[in-house]
């Protein structure tokens, strides 16, 4: 092959690799490794057929840069955790965006059913929430403290217990997705009905705004991450039901890998939600504006992390 043809055939690839090396922080390490292999192959060809050319010199310099980046620049090559949370998590969120949407719709639909059912059947509230919880809440409402249930127990004990319980619910929503999405659907539906029924109880006694100012201090994040975990479970289940051109096992493995990344991203939010419920919600009557600010900030954080940022990176990296 003539050198000019060799250059013409590969120049776009080399420019792309050079750009990857320049912007290494935004590039998957596996991509950089693949680039290095391609460079060494092209360099070997150039050394054989164009030993004195500038093309060989260019490829040699580029290969050295790639080698140093992958094998010698430990600070960069070991920065996988940073890359995971800056890029890989958002790529995984983007890849399962439809199951995440389905999870949200299931939860909202179940919440509506819970609210409406409680409105037309007085016994439904006690059936779902239990007599003890309903009686305690009604007593708190009459005492002028509708969300008084969140003031029981110690701060640390409450935060820890709540965090563990939330993680348990999310884990079930995720892992039960392996049963063809049915288990995940049940978790989302049952929790949605409970939330709708819970809100109707406060609506019935005309204290819904005050109750919301307390519940959603932690509930904004808590319920969001349960929905996200449900989306992860649906992604796994759907990969078995609809494997596309892959085998069901390969489809399941790929979906589980992506869903697991998304689930890991919820861990900090679970901790935040537990902390808010244990340390902040109990003081909801202190300032309505503080409650509103916390709810708004929590909402913005969830929307940014799971909708806006993935869309931004998808546009940048051309994710499908």
UniProtKB/TrEMBL annotation:
The keyword Calcium does not apply. Keywords: Membrane, Transmembrane, Transmembrane helix. The keyword Membrane applies. It comes from the Bacteria. It holds the Pfam family SpoIIM. InterPro entries: SpoIIM-like (IPR002798). The chain crosses the membrane at residues 100-120, 169-189, 223-242, 262-280, 286-308. This is Stage II sporulation protein M.
